[in-house]
Amino acid sequence: MMSEEQPINTHTIAALVDNEAGVLARVIGLFSGRGYNIDSLTVAEVNEDEHMSRITIVTTATPQVINQIKAQLQRLVPVHRVVDLTVETDSVERELALVKVTGKGNDRVEALRMSEAFRARVIDATPESFVFEITGNTAKIDAFIGLMVPLGLQEVSRTGVAAIARGPERM
Amino acid sequence: MSEKLTGAQIVLKALKDQGVGHIFGYPGGAVLPIYDEIFQQEDIEHILVRHEQGATHAAEGYARSTGKCGVVLVTSGPGATNAVTGLTDALMDSIPMVCITGQVATHLIGNDAFQEADTVGITRPCTKHNYLVKSVDDLARIIHEAFHVATSGRPGPVVIDIPKDIQFNLGKYVKPETVRHKTYQPQIKGDMEAIKQAVDLITSAKKPLFYTGGGVINSGPKASQLLREFVKLTGFPITSTLMGLGSFPSADNQWLGMLGMHGTYEANLAMHDCDVMINIGARFDDRITGLLEKFAPNSKKIHVDIDPSSINKNVMVDVGIVGDVAHVLEDMLRVYKSRSSKPDAAAMKAWWAEIEGWRARKCLAYTPDKKSIKPQYAVERLYELTKGGDTYITTEVGQHQMWAAQYYRFEDPNRWMTSGGLGTMGYGIPAAVGVQVAHPKSLVIDIAGEASVQMTMQELSTAVQYRLPIKIFILNNEYMGMVRQWQELLHGGRYSSSYSEALPDFVKLAEAYGATGIRAETPDELDDAIKKMIATDGPVIFDCIVTKDENCFPMIPSGAAHNEMLLADDQGLDVEVSDAGKAMV
Ligand SMILES: Cc1ncc(C[n+]2csc(CCOP(=O)(O)OP(=O)(O)O)c2C)c(N)n1
Ligand SMILES: [Mg+2]
Fold first, then answer.
1. pTM
2. Does the pLDDT of residue B212 top 90, yes or no?
3. Best exposed site among A54, B136, B481, B561 by fewest CB in 10 Å?
């Protein structure tokens, strides 16, 4: 039977792929062509010798669609391995954000105080601005950005999620 | 040390080493070096089509009728974009194809050069895989890899885009045996635990049904043979999708006919009521399932498919088995034979009695006419006058395609070529060209519609040039009949743009091409005309003038369930279709 009432959950999926031309386009085309969500996507080469890249995708879907996403990714010729880090492993996730805040007086003091509470670092400062660097899981970064809004938030640049399974095993 | 070859020489050598006998293609600036090499050899025959779409469908017909890979060669830009429909068609129907496209020289890529198109970008979603060749030293490996990808696992089209400079550059050739892919290794053998679970379900079934598809044909003749053995051994009824016709003989009493939107009453009701469904190489397409919520509501489902992504995609199944049909069937048969428990004979008897009741409804019966040729009658007569012979059937898309599926009967695999997944009008003539190239002595008939044939009629010229005696059997109802039928059903009989206005005189058209034209207008002249067509030693257009407003039954209206089928004697198309149903295609 169809999945009328399946719950929708957020999953982090990692794929090891050949770092060849067009591989990212294949993955993104698969998601857009089949109507899957992409909440975040990161990609970089992780194995220089074998020219392999790791793509980390955060997506939101029903369990049936998550299984489809895995199977469809696995079907792409340059894809070595696909792991649903949310279901198949206990994993850690981190994201990095650069956050630009402008302001004077109390707001500026408050922004600095908050950044310390969140363990963000100041990586650029002028008399009327800060650029903070913050690392953490998505919820923490969302929370920090939310707090910066009334204090003069100007601009955010986020890397998207990088994730890896806990423990000694490799993917 | 092997000597260096030009890229174009490497292409020809690689194709030869892959056992390619025929290429369907069309030249242009960006592939001239390859055409120059074709000119200078005799192992591979090039069939010059009249439009690149024709090359792709010809390659599909060639592939599906032989089990081999179809090969296409086209130029850059418009050559490549013209091939897109056929690539998509091959992807949807899992047809193995390698399509080589020329590309502008490497240093011009990205500059909007003359006849430049982003071919790998355009064809990425309509191929199983594609390549842009960046160095002549990669070329041989890529070609061999492309054949491997196209023909193994779930077959499909692969594009190799070769810039013109690479066709001239000198590089090393490598042989096919030396190429092995790092990541691409489809699973062939099914999981034994799952196979045992499937057999458990099969032996405990009271209302079982085999539901088979194109995967049986793709798996090769052995799969059809094993399927026949298994079906005979179990005594279960069997139905098939449009793409699977021929994998089980239609003359057999266990055969219920095709299922789905225009499937038989008995096949669809058996599907609706079955308690164990054994899906072998079919993919729960929406033409088959109808309304998903009401699809076979009381059944346990087994699904054998070589593509893991087909399992649990549209329909959740109880036992999914990833593997090649022939391999899985072999294991399943062995396990089944080793079991002492067999399906309950009394239950089977009752199930067959129920099925016989549905059969007695004679859902394919139609009211014959003295004056005008009913399209169903035309296909029936065509079948009677060609049966037992060495015949291949292709089709276009529309009512005639469904009538061909219903009234032409197939006893063997690879004899039936139709555009199932994409539903491409214009498929039939070029597909027939491809089939006839592969089987020069056989009778190849395109069962066609007068609208569809006009989409690729130019390929008749190809047939004349290469003396391919294809027969284009047009069920001419002067309508895009399938469109007209849906308009009658869903749009209040407002026949918006579905009348085939300004039709050519097909007999004269045939003559203009140097082929033979035959026309039949009444039932009593039909048989003689068909015999004349069969006896004609060359391509024929047969203009069969049929009843204009005939509808294709049975029909499951979109958004309805299998047990809500319309039959011919239900008096027309007087049904309520839900808004959700109307929105479906
Ligand atoms: C390339 C393409 N365009 C449009 C359609 C939509 N379509 C499906 S059947 C059909 C009419 C076909 O008419 P004809 O070839 O005369 O066949 P008939 O239904 O009359 O037998 C159309 C337009 C299609 N399937 N393919
Ligand atoms: Mg018509």
1. 0.96
2. yes
3. B561
